Structure formats: C-alpha cells, structure tokens
Amino acid sequence: MTLDTAFTGYANPSLHAQGLYIGGKWEAGQGIPVLDPSTGNTLAEVPDASIDDAMRAVDAAEAAASEWRGTPPRQRSEILRRWFTLMTDHAEELALLISLENGKALTDARGEVAYAAEFFRWYAEEATRIGGEFRHTPSGAHNILVDHEPIGIAVLITPWNFPAAMATRKIGPALAAGCTVILKPASETPLTAYAMARLGAEAGVPEGVVNVLTTTTPGPVTSAMLADPRVRKLSFTGSTGVGRTLLAEASKSVVSCSMELGGNAPFVVFDDADLEAALDGAMVAKMRNGGEACTAANRFYVQSGIHDAFVEGLTTRMAKLKLGAGYAPDTQCGPMITINAVEKIDRLVSEAKSRGARATIGGDPMPGSGYYYPPTVLENVPTDAALAHEEIFGPVAAVYRFESEEDAITLANDTEYGLAAYVYSRDIMRAMRVGRGIETGMIGINRGLMSDPAAPFGGTKQSGLGREGGVTGILEFMEPKYFAVEF
Ligand code: NAP
Predict the structure, then answer these.
(1) Alpha-carbon gap, residue 265 to 268, rounded angstroms
(2) Closest CA to 189 of 315, 102, 80, 97
(3) Sign of the Cα pseudo-torsion (166, 171, 174, 180, in order)
(4) Alpha-helical runs (H) found in 253-388
(5) Separation in Å, CA 263 to CA 116, 293, 360, 459
(6) Ligand 1: does its nearest atom lie under 6 Å from the Cβ of 237?
(7) Fewest beta carbons within 10 Å, which of 71, 112, 136, 401?
C-alpha cells in the first residue's frame, strides 16, 4: 500500500483531529508536525497548547465535574459501552491511523485497537460494581463504613508506543469512577487520541468530561495543571526519568500519582522448557510492536542445555520477519518511532558487540529512508553490557547463558526495573518458584503475553506505582472516605 492509499483510509473525516479538544469544542491550531516513521514525511499537524490552554482545559473539566460525578453509574457505564462499540466499529480505521503515526505493523495495530477498546467494555462493567466496606470496630465502640468517591480532576499523560491502549486504560477507569480528565498524548502519536475523542463525543461523553491537548512544552504545562488545587490525580505512563520528574512536581501540591514506567523484562528459559513454545513466546514477548513495548523481553536468560537450540530457533524465526511500513499489509516489523530510537539501539548493540557479543542475524542499522532497525539476535552478551540494564525498545534479542535456578533469579533481578518477566519450564512448581523469586509486578508463566484489561498491570521498583486495569484499576481514581457511625 502506498502512503497515499493508506492516508485515504485514514482520511475518514469523522476521525480527523480538528485542534485542541476542550470543553467539547475543537479549537484549531498548529505547531506539532506528526511524522510517518516509515518515510519521515509529515502526515498532519496538531496544535501546540500553551499553559493558558491547559488551564482552560482544567476549567472545562471542573465545569463538567459535578454533573458527571452525579451521573448514575449505569449511565456512565452505558456511555463507556457505546464508546467500546464505536471503537470496535471503527477498528480498521483506528488501526491504520496507529500504523501511520506510530509505525507498528497493522496486525499489531489491530491487536492494540481490540485491547484498547476492551478497557472501555471492562470499565463499563466495573462502573456499576463500585463497592464499599462495612466493619465493626474491635472495641465495639462504633462501626466503620467506607465509601469510595471519585478522586477529582485527573491529568492523564500517555506515551507513543500504544497510542490507543494507554489512553483507554486511563480514561476507562477514570470515567467509570466519576472523574473528569485532561489527556495529554505523546507528541509523536496524537492523531489516535484525537480520533478517539471524536468517537467519545459520539458515544455521548458530555462536554468537558474528556479534554485532549497536545503541547511542545509538556513540563511547564503539566506543572501548571498540577499546581491547580482542582487537579487531584496524575496518571502517567512513560519513561522512568520523566516519571521521577513528575513525582517531584506532584509532591508540591500532594497530588495522587499512578506511575506506569519503564521495564527491562527478563525471559528465562529452562532446559526442560518446551522449546517450540518458548520460541513462539519469545517472538511475541520480543517482537510485538517491533520491540517497542514496556513489557518487551529485554534479556533472554537461557539455560546451558537448551541455549544453542534456542539461539538457532530464534535466529530462524527472526530471519523470516518481513520488515516494512507498518501499514503495508504483509509487514510484520515496522520502523522505530524516531531516528533517535534507531540511534539508541545502534549504540547499545555496538557496545555489546565491542565487548564480545555476536550477532547471529542483524546487528547493524539499515541504509535508506525511514527509521528502520533490522530484527537482531545477539549471543555471548556480557551480563554487564549496557543493553542488559537499559530498555532496548527495538527488535534486538540479547541472549545470555545461565546454569542454575539461583543464577537465573539473581540475573533476572539485576536491574532497577520491576515491571514484567517471563519464565518457561515444564516443571510448573519450578516456574512458580522462580516467578516468586523475581521482583516484578507481572510474570508470564509459559506465556509471552500477559496484558489483559481484567488483570492488574503495573510494576515494582523503578517501574512504577499503582496498577491499571483489573478490579483495582478503578480505585486509582477513587478516594476512600471513612464514616465512623454508631448504631
Ligand atoms: P516519555 O518520554 O517519558 O514520554 C511519555 C509522555 O510524557 C509523553 O506524552 C511526553 O510528551 C510526556 N512528557 C515528556 N516530558 C514531560 C514532562 N517534563 N512533563 C510532563 N510530561 C512529559 O516516554 P515515551 O518515550 O513516550 O515512552 C516510552 C517509555 O514509556 C518507555 O520507558 C516505556 O517502558 C514506557 N511505557 C511504560 C508502560 C507501562 O505500562 N509501564 C507502557 C508503555 C510505555 P511528549 O511526547 O510531548 O514529549
């Protein structure tokens, strides 16, 4: 498919970004070019919001807050459910849009749209199940009644790697809880967020309940919103570095924070693993989104007895991948998001190679236009190589050898991150034991994919605070209120 044809598909006027989305109105503007990573060409331009624009978005969220909070859960639920249906009806256009601005293969983009829409369906269901708590005090003096109230206006900041799902994973629970929001999507991929806002309006989301703005000055704009006492929640997904900065900013006004940050997932394969299943899982855990996922397997620890067969099998599978523009129908691995991303991958791979790592496939950047890096497998990687400690965020599988179960756990935990890990073994007792020993918020046991709207997603250590999705995800947008009652 040429870019022109792809763009015609996207050029569904009902999904076009029309400017900032504040208080249910579109405000035209320009200033942020959105690029197609497969060519570097500009697809569209979106507005560059100022601090004043952001404060108007807070005003709009405030104006809508009390009515939305008072809207019966069943009605909030039905609006979210309609939004789910509209996303599903427009799945193909949204997938194309994601592929165009993010570069990921259409199959990955379709998977993302389905995953993203599910957060609206899941939280449509959870909206009507918000519970409380009742207890007797041990002393018998009174009773404890706990209600959950919407926390208030929430600022939602999302990354470029899942432009739809990272937004719905926040908007779904926030709206279900009764909060109004201001969404700031990543500058690289704002078109999907604006398209979803249009579908939200069609689903019946009242004016001001969801506001969307893009900006080239996210630091000052976010600080201004966090300093406003009406804003009570920051839900951020992105890098650990920016997360730390935002935690410091939020501390000034003691704003509640949920942080979904970076990862460095180990993928541990024991000798007794089903090799074909481990390779299938490895391809999913490594190559979904071309490796640009926070849960992406960043370090493959493979036990000595199965190591060589694993490297050979992974190399064969990587060699078969079709590289190309995400929106081309047969592409399996698209371009990286920016040229900086390619340069970072190149730096990490070059450092590992200079220290003895060997590429069994790939290992060098590609000439030509577009931000491509080829599928790569590295073996003989030193465990203190930079790519063992930094997120690669690309299609590079670094394989390390280990001998004992204890070694595997020690190596897996040798990182400041604690988001996700994968363990492959036919001995389920061992897999669970090792899973317990690994310090992460999520473990895939004989599975290369763990994300599910019904599961609590999140990390430990420097990978974040709080959980998104699942039954607890809605509580991130609620404040418990305790009533001491005597009766
Ligand atoms: P990023 O650079 O941290 O940016 C994330 C978002 O923060 C973007 O919207 C960005 O806006 C904004 N931002 C940047 N600086 C800011 C500041 N000073 N104040 C307020 N907002 C600011 O991360 P990214 O490169 O987009 O995403 C990749 C990272 O996200 C990886 O580390 C990945 O592991 C992580 N991630 C984590 C999860 C998870 O669930 N744990 C999921 C997906 C991704 P601009 O685009 O305008 O700069």
Answers:
(1) 10
(2) 102
(3) positive
(4) 275-287, 304-319, 339-354
(5) 20, 9, 25, 8
(6) yes
(7) 136
pLDDT of residue 8: 59
Residues with Cβ within 8 Å of 421's Cβ and at least 6 positions away in sequence, in order, are 265, 266, 267, 268, 412, 435, 438, 440, 442, 443, 444
pLDDT digits (tens, 9 = 90+) for 272-287: 999 999 999 999 999 9
- Report d(CA 189, CA 458) in Å as an integer: 22
260 catalytic? Reply is: yes
- CA 328 – CA 1 distance, rounded (Å): 5
Choosing from 104, 294, 391 the residue with most ligand 1 atoms within 8 A of its CB, the one to mutate for a pocket test is 294
- Main-chain phi, psi angles of 125, to 5 degrees: -75, -40
From ligand 1's centre to the CA of 261, what distance in Å?
8
Determine the average pLDDT of the residues in 256-269.
Answer: 98
Active site residue 391: no
Calculate the alpha carbon distances from 229 to 154, 166, 477 in Å: 11, 25, 16
Q: Which amino acid is at 126?
A: E
CB contact set of 429 (below 8 Å; sequence gap of 6+): none
Q: Is the separation of the CB atoms in 51 and 221 below 8 Å?
A: yes
Instruction: Work out the end-to-end distance of the chain between its first and last CA atoms, rounded to an integer number of angstroms.
Output: 71
Query: Closest residue (by CA) to atom 13 of ligand 1?
Result: 218
How far is it, in rounded angstroms, from Cα 457 to Cα 338?
Answer: 27
Q: Which atom of ligand 1 is nearest to the CA of 159?
A: 26
User: Considering the entire predicted model, what is its pTM?
Assistant: 0.97
User: For residues 316 and 57, what is the distance between their CA atoms, to the nearest angstrom?
Assistant: 51
Amino acid at 69: R
Q: Is 114 helix (H, G, I), strand (E, B) or coil?
A: helix
- CA distance to 49, 190, 372, per residue, from 162 (Å): 22, 11, 18
**CA 269–ligand 1 middle distance (angstroms):** 30
At 447, list the tokens.
């599975």
The one catalytic residue in 112, 126, 249, 260 is 260
Structural contact between residues 465 and 235, judged by C-beta atoms closer than 8 angstroms: no
Q: What is the pLDDT of residues 435-449, one digit of tens each?
A: 999 999 999 999 999
Distance (Å, rounded) from C-alpha 298 to C-alpha 440? 14
Q: Which secondary structure element, helix H or strand E, spans residue 89, and what is its range?
A: helix 73-89
pLDDT one-digit tens code per residue, 58-90: 999 999 999 999 999 999 999 999 999 999 999
- Say whether pLDDT at 3 is over 70: no
Q: Which token pair is 458?
A: 């999140």
Asked if residues 278 and 286 have their Cβ atoms less than 8 Å apart, the reply is no
Please answer whether residues 130 and 468 qualify as being in contact, where contact means their C-beta atoms are separated by less than 8 angstroms.
no
Residue-wise DSSP of 225-243: HHHSTTEEEEEEES-HHHH
**Distance in Å, CA 388 to ligand 1 centroid:** 21
